[in-house]
Design a protein that fits this description.
The chain has 119 residues and is of the alpha+beta class. It has 2 domains: 57 residues, no CATH class; 48 residues, no CATH class. It contains 4 helices and 4 strands. The chain is elongated, with a radius of gyration of 16 Å. The two termini are 21 Å apart.
């Protein structure tokens, strides 16, 4: 997924040439954009927190993935049933987790989404 450094574009300052993603130096292009390896949503959240921004603002709009449904419309059992056997991408599951965290933020629902990623 592409990520725009918070110091790029309308941000304050100049983005660095590289960012450290869990020990891996990732190059940042002239526009302040870099490619984040898959399964790094936790890193993205920490990175956004360090710059006091919402992680959604760091993802160029054409790269943002919307959740396939609103998890808050289901109790946890219904959510687990909906996730079981669903053919969802990691990005879609991450978007579901983000929607749950921004909404009801139920630990059991977040665990169900995390478990679906492991299947």
């Amino acid at each position: 997924m592409q990520v725009e450094h918070p110091l790029a574009g309308d941000g304050d300052g100049v983005p660095p040439g590289k960012v450290d993603v869990n020990g891996e130096a990732i190059s940042v292009d002239e526009e302040g954009v870099f490619e984040l390896p898959d399964d790094q949503s936790g890193w993205l959240q920490r990175f956004a927190d360090a710059y006091d921004v919402d992680p959604e603002t760091l993802i160029p709009s054409d790269d943002a993935v919307e959740p396939p449904f609103d998890p808050s419309e289901f109790n946890v059992d219904e959510l687990e049933e909906r996730l079981e056997g669903a053919d969802l991408t990691v990005d879609e599951l991450d978007a579901l987790a983000d929607a749950e965290a921004d909404g009801k933020n139920r630990e059991t629902a977040l665990d169900a989404i995390s478990d679906a990623k492991e299947e």
